[in-house]
């Protein structure tokens, strides 16, 4: 169990009025005095590099000690989004999802604001008038963090923090933060850290400036001249070097761990064990489905991104054919590209599977939206890895919690999907049958007489092939079966062809 992750119902209501209010409200230019005030505090680079919480990336409140800061960080948040395209319903859903992400990261959502704009403001993400409104909301709610529903440029982050006087983080940093909290395996942790450092790199400038100011200030106090940028610059350079060194070390580590997995996968391929990868939106019930199909005890939690490590389990079709089922990290709209890159070796499992089971949460208000997001991420993975994606089997899960109307709509939208409930077991047998049909089966028919001494070959035919007929004779076991080319070749010497 992880202590921090606790899901609460949304504390935010997005009424039409809210959205309308959010969509208007361009007012005059707004300037907060003393925009240079926030300093970075005394956090060590080492600690930043470890990056347990991405929230502390840039500005901290100027006047709190580190201990207080820790308790403050990401606790009480205001969400803000820019709604550029799509329906009002979609923008609400997007912010509601951001709220769930924020709660998964352990924060309390106080308020959500959306602004309708053609595109985000290049300087401050939301319009300057909106910044003032947001500042009021931050003050009146006592929020300590603002989370923006997009990836902000380093400049946007800095300007917003200057104006709002609280921490500002974006969707990418939030997702990275959740991943950092949930990573368990050595590989997972390394992958997340790599993604975080890659996110951090281009943002080092702003941070570096703060460090530079800080160092300059100290130097000034000690009698150094005003405008001596030396110490800060030097520190920034050192920081950059250290981060770069860490990045390349992590890359090497991850690559080495990927190799181990490749070897394992290679062994499966050599045995011609078909592989099925389970992918889908976060919290759709992928791990539950793996458990339902194979009886494996994979962690299931009502939290986003509960699973970060690919778990592979063996399963058997009713024909006795073995295959592997792999549970993977959940997807979300705009999965940070740093994560796709860092999790490349994990995602390769998905790309190289024989069949992709795409799990959709039928009880979600907009399941088709999940489907779209997942397919987008799949395309991105395919592009990055340079392969085409395997055949997709859509599985609508949680039908026990899906209304009749929604079911009818889904059956219409996804005519080839399987409908199941990992919770009640409804449809699971049918799904097993369907998987058996969709995975590539052995296509070489053999008729062999295997001596009793070759029990291992008999076992192989059973696990890798489909046995059509089996008879125990005085000379050995006569088997008619369908097997893969390799095994057919290995058994050629035992063929009974023509002898009966
Ligand atoms: N009602 C209902 N709830 C389900 C069903 N399957 C899964 N759940 C619940 O959905 C939540 C998420 O399930 P998981 O199996 O952890 O989902 P996941 O897709 O692996 O999630 P991540 O690993 O976080 O991406 C849990 O609270 C499950 O109990 C189902 O068929 N019906
Ligand atoms: Mg899971």
TrEMBL record:
<feature type="binding site">
    <location>
        <begin position="421"/>
        <end position="423"/>
    </location>
    <ligand>
        <name>GTP</name>
    </ligand>
</feature>
<keyword id="KW-0342">GTP-binding</keyword>
<protein>
    <recommendedName>
        <fullName>GTPase HflX</fullName>
    </recommendedName>
</protein>
<dbReference type="InterPro" id="IPR030394">
    <property type="entry name" value="G_HFLX_dom"/>
</dbReference>
<dbReference type="InterPro" id="IPR016496">
    <property type="entry name" value="GTPase_HflX"/>
</dbReference>
<dbReference type="GO" id="GO:0005525">
    <property type="term" value="F:GTP binding"/>
</dbReference>
<feature type="region of interest" description="Disordered">
    <location>
        <begin position="215"/>
        <end position="238"/>
    </location>
</feature>
<feature type="binding site">
    <location>
        <begin position="327"/>
        <end position="330"/>
    </location>
    <ligand>
        <name>GTP</name>
    </ligand>
</feature>
<dbReference type="InterPro" id="IPR042108">
    <property type="entry name" value="GTPase_HflX_N_sf"/>
</dbReference>
<comment type="function">
    <text>GTPase that associates with the 50S ribosomal subunit and may have a role during protein synthesis or ribosome biogenesis.</text>
</comment>
<comment type="similarity">
    <text>Belongs to the TRAFAC class OBG-HflX-like GTPase superfamily. HflX GTPase family.</text>
</comment>
<dbReference type="Pfam" id="PF01926">
    <property type="entry name" value="MMR_HSR1"/>
</dbReference>
<feature type="binding site">
    <location>
        <position position="307"/>
    </location>
    <ligand>
        <name>Mg(2+)</name>
    </ligand>
</feature>
<comment type="subunit">
    <text>Monomer. Associates with the 50S ribosomal subunit.</text>
</comment>
<dbReference type="GO" id="GO:0005737">
    <property type="term" value="C:cytoplasm"/>
</dbReference>
<dbReference type="InterPro" id="IPR027417">
    <property type="entry name" value="P-loop_NTPase"/>
</dbReference>
<keyword id="KW-0547">Nucleotide-binding</keyword>
<feature type="binding site">
    <location>
        <begin position="397"/>
        <end position="400"/>
    </location>
    <ligand>
        <name>GTP</name>
    </ligand>
</feature>
<feature type="binding site">
    <location>
        <begin position="305"/>
        <end position="309"/>
    </location>
    <ligand>
        <name>GTP</name>
    </ligand>
</feature>
<dbReference type="Pfam" id="PF13167">
    <property type="entry name" value="GTP-bdg_N"/>
</dbReference>
<keyword id="KW-0963">Cytoplasm</keyword>
<dbReference type="InterPro" id="IPR006073">
    <property type="entry name" value="GTP-bd"/>
</dbReference>
<keyword id="KW-0460">Magnesium</keyword>
<dbReference type="GO" id="GO:0043022">
    <property type="term" value="F:ribosome binding"/>
</dbReference>
<feature type="domain" description="Hflx-type G">
    <location>
        <begin position="274"/>
        <end position="443"/>
    </location>
</feature>
<dbReference type="Pfam" id="PF16360">
    <property type="entry name" value="GTP-bdg_M"/>
</dbReference>
<dbReference type="GO" id="GO:0003924">
    <property type="term" value="F:GTPase activity"/>
</dbReference>
<dbReference type="InterPro" id="IPR025121">
    <property type="entry name" value="GTPase_HflX_N"/>
</dbReference>
<feature type="compositionally biased region" description="Gly residues">
    <location>
        <begin position="217"/>
        <end position="230"/>
    </location>
</feature>
<keyword id="KW-0479">Metal-binding</keyword>
<feature type="binding site">
    <location>
        <position position="287"/>
    </location>
    <ligand>
        <name>Mg(2+)</name>
    </ligand>
</feature>
<dbReference type="InterPro" id="IPR032305">
    <property type="entry name" value="GTP-bd_M"/>
</dbReference>
<feature type="binding site">
    <location>
        <begin position="280"/>
        <end position="287"/>
    </location>
    <ligand>
        <name>GTP</name>
    </ligand>
</feature>
<dbReference type="GO" id="GO:0046872">
    <property type="term" value="F:metal ion binding"/>
</dbReference>
């Amino acid at each position: 169990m992880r202590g921090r992750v606790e899901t609460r119902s949304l504390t935010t209501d997005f009424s039409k009025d809210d959205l309308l209010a959010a969509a208007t409200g361009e007012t005059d230019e707004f300037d907060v005095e003393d925009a240079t005030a926030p300093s970075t505090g005394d956090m060590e680079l080492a600690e930043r590099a470890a990056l347990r919480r991405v929230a502390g990336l840039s500005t901290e409140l100027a006047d709190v000690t580190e201990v207080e800061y820790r308790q403050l960080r990401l606790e009480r948040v205001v969400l803000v989004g820019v709604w550029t395209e799509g329906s009002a319903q979609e923008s609400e859903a997007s912010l509601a999802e951001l709220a769930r992400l924020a709660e998964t990261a352990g924060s309390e959502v106080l308020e959500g604001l959306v602004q309708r704009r053609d595109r985000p403001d290049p300087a401050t993400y939301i319009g300057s008038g909106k910044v003032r409104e947001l500042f009021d909301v931050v003050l009146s709610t006592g929020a300590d963090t603002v989370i923006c529903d997009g990836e902000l440029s380093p400049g946007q982050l800095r300007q917003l923090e200057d104006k709002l006087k609280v921490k500002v983080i974006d969707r990418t940093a939030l997702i990275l933060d959740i991943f950092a909290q949930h990573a368990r395996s050595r590989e997972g942790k390394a992958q997340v850290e790599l993604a975080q450092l890659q996110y951090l790199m281009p943002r080092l400038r702003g941070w570096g400036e703060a460090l530079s100011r800080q160092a300059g200030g100290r130097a000034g106090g000690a009698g150094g001249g005003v405008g001596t940028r030396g110490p800060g610059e030097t520190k920034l350079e050192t920081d950059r070097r250290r981060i770069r060194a860490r990045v390349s070390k992590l890359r090497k580590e991850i690559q080495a761990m990927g190799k181990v997995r490749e070897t394992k996968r290679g062994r499966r391929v050599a045995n011609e064990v078909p592989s099925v990868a389970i992918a889908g939106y976060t919290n759709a019930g992928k791990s539950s489905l793996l458990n339902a199909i194979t009886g494996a005890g994979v962690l299931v939690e009502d939290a986003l991104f509960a699973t970060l490590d690919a778990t592979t389990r063996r399963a058997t079709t009713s024909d006795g054919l073995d295959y592997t089922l792999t549970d993977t990290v959940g997807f979300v709209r705009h999965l940070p590209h740093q994560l796709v890159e860092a999790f490349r070796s994990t995602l390769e499992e998905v790309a190289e599977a024989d069949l992709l089971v795409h799990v959709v949460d039928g009880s979600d208000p907009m399941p088709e939206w999940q489907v779209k997001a997942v397919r987008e991420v799949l395309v991105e993975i395919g592009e990055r890895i340079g392969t085409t994606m395997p055949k997709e089997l859509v599985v609508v899960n949680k039908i026990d919690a899906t209304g009749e109307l929604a079911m009818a709509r889904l059956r219409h939208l996804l005519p080839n999907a399987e409908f199941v409930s990992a919770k009640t077991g409804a449809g699971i047998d049918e799904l097993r049958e369907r998987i058996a049909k969709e995975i590539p089966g052995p296509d070489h028919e053999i008729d062999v007489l295997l001596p009793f001494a070759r029990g291992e070959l008999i076992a192989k035919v059973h696990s890798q092939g489909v046995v059509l007929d089996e008879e125990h004779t005085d000379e050995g076991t006569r088997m008619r079966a369908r097997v893969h080319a390799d095994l057919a070749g290995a058994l050629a010497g035992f063929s009974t062809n023509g002898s009966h």
